[in-house]
Every structure is written in C-alpha cells, then in structure tokens.
Amino acid sequence: MNHQAHELTEALRQQIIRWVELESPSHDADALRAMAALILDDIKDSPLRVEQINVGEDTGPILHIHNRADNDSRSGILVLGHYDTVHPIGTLTQNPCRQEGDKLFGPGIYDMKSGVVLALSALKALAQPQATQLPVDLVLVPDEETGSHYSREYIEKFAKKSVYTLVCEPARVEEGRCVTARKGTGNIFITAHGRPAHAGIHHEKGRNAIEEIAHHVLALEKLTDYERGITVSVGVIKGGTTSNVVPAWCQIKADFRVPNAEMAQRLEQQVQQIKAIHPDIRLEVEFKLNRPAMPRTEATAALLAQCQHYARQAGFELKEAPMTGGASDANFTAALGVPTLDGLGADGNGAHTLNEHILVSTLAQRRQFWLHTLAQLH
C-alpha cells in the first residue's frame, strides 16, 4: 500500500470508528437523531448541500445530501444507505470497536455504516456539480432494518427521478460480490379466536385457539418450495393465558421470501385459501408484502458492466452474487424499473452478529470505486 492509500485508509478507518461508537438502533429515536447530527457534522465544511426530512417523532430524519447546482432538476444517481442498526444500545460492550489483524469489529460496522462512509467520502471529493456526469443524491434513512415504513414513500419519490440507484449495503462475503437480484419479503399473520373455559371443569365448552393455530403452523411451513425459491418460516407464536384455561386467542407471524411477483401472487392466493379447521373458531388471515422482489434485468446487467469497469480502474474485480434471500431498500427502487445495483459497501462478514467486522485493507480500493463510479456514470 503506497503512502497516499495508507493515509486514505487511516482517515476512513477513524471516521468509521467514530460512527460505530455512536450506537444507533432502529427503535431509539434519540440515538438516531444523534447519529444524523454526527453525519452532518462530518460534512459541515463541504460545499455539499443537505436537506433534512422529518418523518416522525419516533425515528430520525432522512438525510438528503447532494451536489446539485441551483435549479438542476435532471434525473441523476440515487445512492441509498441507512444509518440505523439492529444492535441495541450497549452492544459495544460485547463487540467493542477494535482491530484484530485486518478485521475492524463493531456493531453495525459492516451493515452498513462503513458503506455509507465510503460513498460519502467519494461524494465529498465530488462536491462541485461539474465533478460528476450526473447529479448525485445520497439519501440516508433511519429505519431500513425495520422495513423502511417511514422512509419508503421518500425512497420511491427519489427513485422516480433517478437514472440509476446504487446501494451501500455490504458486499457479499464471497469475494466482495455485489447484488443484482433479491427476493421479495413479507409477513403472514394468522389469528385464531376461540372460546375460553375452565380446563378442568368445563373443558368441553372451550374452543382451543392454540390447537387451531397448531394446524396452520404446519400448513404454512409446507408452503416452502425450494425449487421455486419460496420460503415460509413461522417465527413467532403468541397465545393463551394460564395452563388451566382453554385458550381463546392465539396468533402466529411467519416470514416469507419470494423470487418474483408471480410467485408472490401465487403464495398470496394459497394463504388466502386458509380456513379454520374447527367450525366454532374464527380465523383472521393477513398477507403483507413489505418489499417486492428485485429482479435482475437487462438494464441492471448494463449498469453492472459499467460498474465493473470502474472497479477495475480502482484495482479489483467486481463480481456478481447469486440472488439473495435478504431484502433491502434496493427492492423498492428496482420494482419501479430503475436499474439498481446493491451490495456496493465494504468487504467483511458477520452482519447482525457480535462478530460483525470489515476488512480494513479493502477500504481504499472500495472508496476509489465509488469515486470513479459517481464521477463517470452517465
């Protein structure tokens, strides 16, 4: 590593550490606002322009950081990131920010604070409007890890005015690959309403909601079809009061993943056909698609080819990962027909775990990739 690359790596490393040591879990509005303030503080001396979008008291603001000139309404490059993490306050005591060999550890470092640092660092170097072929809009949201329910309408609004979307989610573990296709995700809720009764004296008068739900747990799990790329997983079950009362209420929540819109429709039809087994029990069934599938299109392939060229300029090969079952905000932009490339953040491993880390030796090359991409993409 030459002297210039070493200095760049160290500057990025220090900034990433600052960001990681300010924990910002999705459900802590005060922590999210503090994180947003730190991000803005890091660009206060830059000519980049900033818009803060308030999306409610229960979360942080959306940050729109851009290099647009006055009255420049052209469609540009949307760079998407999030500054919330899955880790609660205090996770730093279990996974402190530290470097061991090439690995730099910390909660949220891989997913995805380091990815945002890389993109923001490149954009700061391209802050003048004439420095890029297209205007660049970096949009950072506070709620991606919980489904982007506050942010989705704004993400889609920006996407509709964009030529391309680039997403700062972490590079895939296998050789730092990027993502061109993601499954759609959602939840299935089934709620059973039975009839309470004393379990010892009037057992026959009760209608057991947990027994009813047990049938549907098995039925939902059988909807998994690996050949078609569909998975259904019942992850939460709630119901009953005490063991000596026939339970009158029970609910399950299942996660589902689908590879395309056709399979989502097929699964929804199967779910909506679910009926109560016991005639005296009332069943409520909900099918909620949160993020639509992100298909790999010809336009995505063309965008990938351009970005692979910029990666070679930065000194590495940008490889493509197979479709992933994980979802991101890329699902929203791709569903609108915007060519979208995801997984362009830092190399590392351990997302959402206490082993989360990035590889420091790759930071300079990744940042140069962002620099070339944002400057040259047209």
UniProtKB/TrEMBL annotation:
InterPro entries: Bact_exopeptidase_dim_dom, Pept_M20_glutamate_carboxypep, Peptidase_M20, Peptidase_M20_dimer, Peptidase_M20A. Keywords: Hydrolase, Metal-binding. Residues 180-274 form the Peptidase M20 dimerisation domain. Transmembrane segments: none annotated. CDD domains: M20_CPDG2 (cd03885). It comes from the Bacteria. This is M20 family metallopeptidase. It comes from Paenalcaligenes hermetiae.
